[in-house]
Amino acid sequence: MKLLISFFISFWLSILLFLGCNSPSKKEYKKIKVSTKSEARINQLISNNDIVSAERYYHNNHNEDISKRFEYLDSISTGINFENIWNPKEEHKPQLENSFISAGVAIGDYNNDGLMDIFLSRQQDGGRLYKNLGEMKFKDVTKTVGVFDKNMWSTGVSFVDINNDGWVDLYVCGFESTNKLYINNKGYFEEKAKSYGLDFKGASVMMAFADYDNDGDLDAYLLTNRIKMGTDSLMANLIRDNSGKLQVKEEYKELGYFLDRPGNIPALINAGQYDYLYKNENGYFVDVTIESGIGRNPYYGLSATWWDYNDDGMPDLYVANDFMGPDHLFQNLGLDKNGIVKFKDITSEAIPYTPWFSMGADYSDINNDGKMDLMASDMAGSNHYRDKLSMGAMTGPDSEAWFLNFPDPPQYMRNMVYLNTGTNKFMEVAYLSGLATTDWTWTVKFGDLDNDGFEDVYFTNGMSRDFMNGDAKDRFRSQKNKLIDNFNFWNNQEPYRLNNMAFKNLGDLKFKDVSIDWGLDHFGVSTGSAIGDLDNDGDLDLVMNGFNEPARLYRNNSEKNNSIRLNLLGEDTNSKGLGAKVEMFYNNNRTKLLRYVSSSRGLMSSSESIIHFGLGASEKADEIKIHWPSGKVQSIKDIPSGHLYNVLEKNNSRESTKESESMFARSTNSLSNTKHKEKFFNDFGREQLLPNKLSQLGSGVAWGDIDGDGDDDVYLGAASGSSGKIFVNDGIGNFIKTVQNIFYRDANYEDMGSIFIDPDNDGDLDLYVVSGGVECNQGEAILQDRLYLNDGDGNFSRASEGLLPKIYESGGVVCAADIDKDGRLELFIGGRVVPGKYPQSPKSYILKNSGPRYIDSTDDMAPGLKQKGMVTGAIFSDVDNDSWIDLLVTYEWGPVRYFNNKSGKLIEQTKEVDLDSNLGWFNSISSGDIDNDGDIDFIIGNIGYNTKYKATVSDPELLYYGDFEGNGKKNIIEAKFEKNICFPRRGLSCSSNAMPTVKEKFPTYHQFAISSVQDIYTEALLSSADKYVANELASGILINKTDLKGETSFEFRALPRIVQSSPIFGSALCDVNGDGYLDLYVVQNFSGPQRETGYMHGGVSQLLLGDGSGSFKPVPPNKSGLIVRGDATSLTTTDLNGDGKPDFLVGVNNGKYELFTNQFKTSSLSIRLPDYPKGRKFVGSKIRIYFKDNSVQLHQLNIGGGYLSQSAPIVFIGNKQNIDKIMVEWPDGLENELDIKFLSNDISF
User: Fold this and answer.
1) Given pLDDT bands bounded at 50, 70 and 90, which one contains residue 236?
2) pLDDT in tens, 1062-1111
3) Which of 22, 531, 1024, 1203 has the fewest CB atoms found within 10 Å of its own CB?
4) Which residues contact 1030 (CB under 8 A, 6 or more apart)?
5) Positive/negative CA dihedral, 889, 894, 896, 900
6) In this structure, is the dihedral angle defined by the CA atoms of residues 860, 861, 864 and 868, taken in order, positive or negative?
7) Would you call 752 exposed, middle or buried from its count of C-beta atoms within 10 A (0-12, 13-18, 19+)?
8) What are the E-state strand segments in 462-571?
9) What is the crossing angle of helices 470-477 and 482-491, to 10°?
């Protein structure tokens, strides 16, 4: 190996010397100039053996009249006269509707002359190899160099040095043709697939090469699809297993397999061929698919991508499968005890959902956080018309929509962007980043196309026919003999031509569509594609293959050559360094870029193996660190831009293996082993066009000292069909479940919000639980709230009926405060929904404690509060610091409403405090003084930016609720804006199933797709309907701007973009790291949306550290230790272990509770103001922390807040050494100053 590398280095030096002296010398094609300082540094790098050599870039030789970043060069200019013409044998013509209409591209320097060459595959003659002559001129050398095969249908292609001799070989996959391995002999090829064990014949899509066992040679994964189209599964022989269940016999599993269906018999699905994993054993490739743990997977493969997602140095594998075949993320586990490298499919535990029709895939560190992310494409329409035309039937015998939420993980028809959290869970941020819908996308290709330091992305689009066209599918189904007429029907349709797309990476998970601006919006059918610097000018050029159209080459016309390119020369590693991780630091080490060397990326294609870094405005890199697959770590410092560097593998840097401790640790006590269980209810059976389920909104949690022993116990609410639970704290962090017979008897109630209070003033805490849900009819007694009385020892019984007014509303939140200063707590009960009548407003209430009972005092104490909308959250707080407790309420389809307390009456002043303009789908509200200015600010949970919904003031989301058919039945219409036209959100199938007149008026998908809401439902009917508006979907902060005169206003600030990845429910403000500033923890996700929308599971929860100015900095999940998957709802704080630091309990709908303990090494204080068994009443108490820098942090103890949450009555205080004084203001107006000298970690009064 070392001898070969030495030869390769010598050869490269001679080539580079030749290029430096004899390369094209035309005036318009000169090399760039570099400074004397840069030249001196490069010579020093060579002298120090940091690099082998460096080659300056050429000036960009573009046409000055071209205004676009990319310039299409035609065949006359380039010499690439190539077209993938569709003309298969008769038996294979049905492949017209499969992926084999696609063709690949490979870029690599086959003759080691320093210029990247191109191989293009196609359906006939095996494809073509084009030698790069320089200056974007190419020559067809296919026959000359020995890679011509006139009978081959070539598909996926790769340049790869399979024998580590320093010359790239060529692997060509075939459809019903034997795969070819062309071994390179100094620029000439000899076919040797059989002698290497790689002569597979079948439906090969791509051979993805990687050194998965890090032994220095390349192994391979063969991705396949299917040979036959149509009903091949019917030819499979079936047997019954021991349980009587039908199974496909083993030898027929590449023809068909069974797929379970909810509420139906299993479906027999057409299968694809098995994929294969090959291990390279001394130059011969051995099938290790079974023993590796990957197993036999008979699906329709479209891309296979090697990448090291968990940064352990072992290549992992993502396999994208079409249609109902699941995608796979195979984690490389390394060697087992028997010396075999094992893989584990971790898809369901790592990824929230995958594309339904997965196609191309590629990886990139899209947010430059040092972790590799991945994107997989689908075929979702990029505009309203394409979306609705392709939606098809969502119900009925021809619908496959049942499949969307059925797999684990679910599969949705859109692109997915998996954001690496550094843990075993990915976030999914396709909508957030603007990359969710890019039409029928084959290739996903990341690369820094403008050399600004962020990797951009482009997509190739189109299809042989529009097989997803709802009208075309309906016409096809109407044929008498579908099997016979299938091919003829589709063959007579036009190709589905679409625009290719390119998106510029703006940073902060934002991408901008620059397809037109950059000249990459070709309209046609483009499939495989690859990138590489074809003219050695330091920017990335593009090559695209297509269907029945010429291949396309685009020259990158970037003005600046501000990049660094690395050609890795492996020694102990494979010769091209496949599997190497390369980090670049620049901008005074403030910016870090990450690259990974792999072969197959995108679809059927392989780009150049050169590492490319754009530097933006910087002219040098501070350091480049190469992590070789061999384990060697190589550091190169102070590297000038404008060059391609040849780097030989060496070990000159020590890698730090010390891992920082997580800020929080997951606890495994009895609380975390408790599960919230939902009983299935079909919300959409009652209201067909309902946007989201309303039957799974729990669980609520409340903390309180029920047994008077000085520590806090907890109530965990339950869904209908299960009983609530009380766990008693034993004082040392253990929780024991108590038997409460009344909770078992009340198991049919749906628990929502709950709080511990003492309404009977007997010195112990009683429990109030709100009844909610929609698994009933409006006004049923099951919606009555419940009050459970404590006997003093923590045993509860149901209060007599007379203690609560009879209110049969489906409620949500409950919070308590002394509104009128009579010493007794009033309750606010928020009405959540009217069962079966969404979005009508339910009633909300103020219940006054009259002494002997609660009475409805809503009209007296809060005129105008009762029917303001669907309440999702509420909190009592003295907003204006006048010592009268105020109320803020969040709504779905409404603003955050502010009710100012005027001497015991709550008067709405939403408009007066500037809260009336932001209308959202708000979920929750929590409070805290985030800017240390002595007043209370608020966190508002909303749906976020990572969904199909995109609301702004100018283009809001709308909902109409009315009778649109004249039959007395009200229906829901969701609407959006696109180019100033208001369109329906739901498609023809869903809309007409609920309202048959829609189909009568608009019988085709086309007619429906081009029609506005006004066209479909008429302006008159829309005007008569109830109208709801949302114009703000961000979760955010309400900064309290109350001045010295008590005049209040609020400023809304969106939380950091990463937080908008999923709907926020629970939130908590507390000082987790003891620096004296309030931090924020939020929990996320929602499984309620109707299946066309899909689950909103993009987040994993998020910790943000506050800076005391009102700003927050997100903490990566791998550092915070806070990871919550599933529908996280309630979030409460407590001190589980008495260390004075906040811990978290997270409620998960239909899942296990999550408990996290604080691991920060801080000297924090926790001040506990227990109401019972002794001391004065604390609800509404204010604690002011006066710091030595003259800032004041205000805390107010509330009952109820966040989302269905009551935290323990503890205030956590940091920055202990800089506290000047602490003052406590009690609800009765008395104040105490605490003696700081005697403060311990836990203060009780």
Assistant:
1) confident
2) 999 999 999 999 999 999 999 999 999 999 999 999 999 999 999 999 99
3) 22
4) 893, 919, 920, 921, 949, 951, 956, 957, 958, 959
5) negative
6) negative
7) buried
8) 498-499, 501-507, 510-513, 523-524, 526-532, 541-546, 552-556, 563-569
9) 140
For tokens 């943000």, name the residue: 1104
580 pairs with which residues across the strands?
none
**Contact status, residue 1153 vs residue 674, Cβ threshold 8 Å:** yes
Are 1112 and 1080 in contact by the 8 Å Cβ rule? The answer is yes
Tell me phi and psi for residue 78, to 5 degrees.
Answer: -95, -25
Can you tell me the distance from the alpha carbon of 793 to that of 800, in angstroms, rounded to the nearest whole number? 19
CB 700 within 8 A of CB 712: no
**Which pLDDT value is given to residue 261?**
81
List, in sequence order, the alpha helices (H) in 402-502. Answer: 430-433, 470-477, 482-491
CB 1162 within 8 A of CB 1234: no
CA distances (Å), origin 1202, targets 87, 537, 1083? 63, 56, 10
Handedness of CA 260, 262, 268, 271 (dihedral sign): negative
Q: What percent of the chain has pLDDT over 90?
A: 81
Task: Report the DSSP beta bridge partners of residue 1125.
Answer: none
pTM of the complete model: 0.95
857 and 900 Cβ atoms separated by less than 8 Å:
no
- Give me the numbers of helices (H) and strands (E) for the chain, helices first please: 19, 85
Q: Which residue type sits at 942?
A: N
Give percent helix, percent strand, percent coil of the chain, each to the nearest 5. 15, 40, 50
Give the ranges where 371-505 is alpha helix by DSSP (H).
384-389, 430-433, 470-477, 482-491
d(CA 898, CA 739): 41
Based on its alpha-carbon atoms, the radius of gyration of the chain, rounded to whole angstroms, reads: 33
Q: In 960-980, which positions are buried (b, 16+ CB within 10 angstroms) versus exposed (e)?
A: bbbebbeeeebbbbbbbbeee
- Structural tokens at position 640: 């000038």
Model pLDDT for residues 595-611, shown as the tens digit of each residue: 999 989 999 999 999 99
Sign of CA dihedral 1135, 1137, 1138, 1139: negative
**What is the distance between the alpha carbons of residues 602 and 224, in angstroms, rounded to a whole number?**
15
The alpha carbon of 363 is separated from its chain's Cα centroid by a whole number of angstroms, namely 14
Q: Kindly state the tokens that stand for 758.
A: 């003492």
First to last CA, the chain: 76
CA 1007 from centroid of its chain's CA atoms:
34
Length of the chain: 1245
Please report, as a single letter, which amino acid is at residue 983.
Answer: F
Q: Please provide the DSSP assignment of 218-251 as one string.
A: -EEEEEE--S--SSGGGGS-EEE-TTS-EEE-GG
Q: How far is CA 1105 from the centre of its chain?
A: 22
842: preceding bond cis by omega (within 30 degrees): no
Cα gap 1212→1141, rounded to integer Å: 7
Question: Which DSSP helix (H) or strand (E) runs through 1127?
Answer: strand 1127-1134
Q: Which residue has the tokens 């389809």?
A: 893
Model confidence at 985: pLDDT above 80: yes
Residue recorded with tokens 């293009």: 120
Residue from 946, 938, 934 nearest 913 by CA: 938
Residue 1206 near residue 702 (C-beta atoms within 8 A): yes
Of 1084, 1034, 1036, nearest to 930 by C-alpha is 1036
